[in-house]
Design brief:
- The complex is a heterodimer of chains A (124) and B (125).
- With 124 residues, chain A is mainly alpha-helical.
- Chain A is 78% helix and 0% strand.
- Chain A is built from 5 helices and no strands.
- Chain B is mainly alpha-helical.
- Chain B contains 5 helices and no strands.
- Chain B has helices at residues 3-31, 37-60, 64-78, 82-93, 97-124.
- Chain B is globular.
- The two termini of chain B are 29 Å apart.
- The model of chain B has no long low-confidence stretch (mean pLDDT 97).
- The chains are: A mainly alpha (124), B mainly alpha (125).
- At the A-B interface, helix 1, helix 2, helix 3, helix 4 and helix 5 of A face helix 1, helix 2, helix 3, helix 4 and helix 5 of B.
Chain lengths: 124, 125
């Protein structure tokens, strides 16, 4: 159990690092890399957990590997909060507010969208 | 990153994700109930620690590779946004709208405060 979470954690964190390298955030600007990471991860987790729990009963290790490991580590609360704190500290309150609130609202909306997508039945 | 930094990054990420799983289970067992205290405690402590690491970089010349390994790898994997958003939506679906609001606002506000405390602690010493 712990081994698959550790392995998933490595993959998720490496993918997040890759996104951050690909979309570097300059000081004082909106941190798009973390935003897209958290939003996409929230959608995929909602979709995945519904598929695993409500439609295809999981094998014992799939959920810890994908949900707790990969997606848990891919998305991050600490980077989001520290980025918001730095934007406030450096005098960018509007960017901080739009990033802080935007990540929260969009993240929750897409998590729900992921859950609903997972519940779509063929032919319904 | 160098090869050695990548190895350290992956080890830190593995430890972060594992620590999240263990602490989440421990806290959730103690608190019971529907409110996701486990994720809350993990995320707030992670925000504090990343605040400290970021402050050490800003005020005490902690190197970029160390911050990437411990911060991006370790704390990034330890804390999670996707589980937080999923659990919040589930609370709404279960009719616990109050709990969902407290979790959403509480996690973000307390996490932000914890990040500031971490930054302030390192600025003060």
């Amino acid at each position: 159990m712990l081994a698959v979470i550790a392995l998933g954690g490595m993959l998720g964190a490496a993918a997040r690092y890759g996104v951050a390298q690909w979309l570097p955030t300059r000081t004082g600007r909106f941190p798009w890399a973390t935003f897209w990471t958290n939003v996409s991860g929230s959608f995929i987790l909602g979709l995945l957990l519904v598929l695993l729990v409500e439609r295809f009963p999981p094998t014992r290790l799939v959920r810890p590997f994908l949900a707790t490991g990969v997606l848990g580590a891919f998305t991050t609360m600490s980077t989001y909060e520290v980025e918001t704190a730095l934007l406030i500290k450096d005098g960018h309150p509007l960017t901080a507010a739009s990033y802080g609130l935007g990540s929260l609202v969009v993240g929750l909306a897409v998590a729900y969208a992921g859950i609903l997508t997972g519940r779509i039945r063929d032919g319904s | 990153m160098t090869g050695a930094s990548w190895v350290a990054f992956l080890v830190a990420a593995a430890m972060g994700a594992t620590a999240r799983y263990l602490l989440d289970g421990l806290v959730q067992d103690r608190t019971g109930g529907a409110f996701p205290w486990g994720t809350f405690v993990v995320n707030v402590t992670g925000c504090l620690i990343l605040g400290v690491l970021t402050g050490l970089g800003l005020y005490h010349q902690l190197g970029a590779s160390t911050r990437t390994v411990l911060g991006t790898g370790g704390m990034g994997a330890y804390t999670t946004f996707s589980t937080f958003s999923f659990e919040t939506v589930r609370l709404v679906e279960e009719g616990a709208v109050d709990g969902a609001l407290r979790n959403a606002v509480g996690s973000v506000v307390v996490g932000l405060a914890a990040a500031f405390v971490g930054l302030a602690l390192t600025a003060a010493v």
